Amino acid sequence: xxxxxxxxxxxxxxxxxxxxxxxxxxxxxxxxxxxxxxxxxxxxxxxxxxxxxxxxxxxxxxxxxxxxxxxxxxxxxxxxxxxxxxxxxxxxxxxxxxxxxxxxxxxxxxxxxxxxxxxxxxxxxxxxxxxxxxxxxxxxxxxxxxxxxxxxx
Length: 153
Fold this sequence. Notes:
Oligomer: single chain
CATH superfamily: Superoxide dismutase, copper/zinc binding domain
Largest sheet: 8 strands, antiparallel
Helix content: 10-25%
Structural class: alpha+beta
Order of helices and strands: HHEEEEEEEE
CATH architecture: Sandwich
Strand order of the largest sheet: 5-4-7-8-1-2-3-6
Strand content: 25-35%
Number of strands: 8
Radius of gyration: 16 Å
């Protein structure tokens, strides 16, 4: 299941629980931002992230694709084996996408026949895993620099 579908299912379940009066955590009313995060509350700007943090990436004004949306995940539950994943969907097949964390390009992918492009980096596979902190911006961009989706850890 993609990150976006996982987050959407979490948000629906949290909303249903809130509507039924069942506690979802500290508060039964979840904002879109709160529903986009799992495992912990947002870290203060510049603070280290712990556990697993998943965020929604919203369509940017510069995106030529009205349905574009994305998600990013940083997982450091096993400190010696961190993982980072970022994806965007609802793109035309064959669209080349560059992924950024802050101002650093961390990789590229091409949208598949389902219109999804993703990048998975894992220390366990010998890959360099970028380390976001609270407030770090994650983006998917076109080759010409236009931002498709963007979000903040």
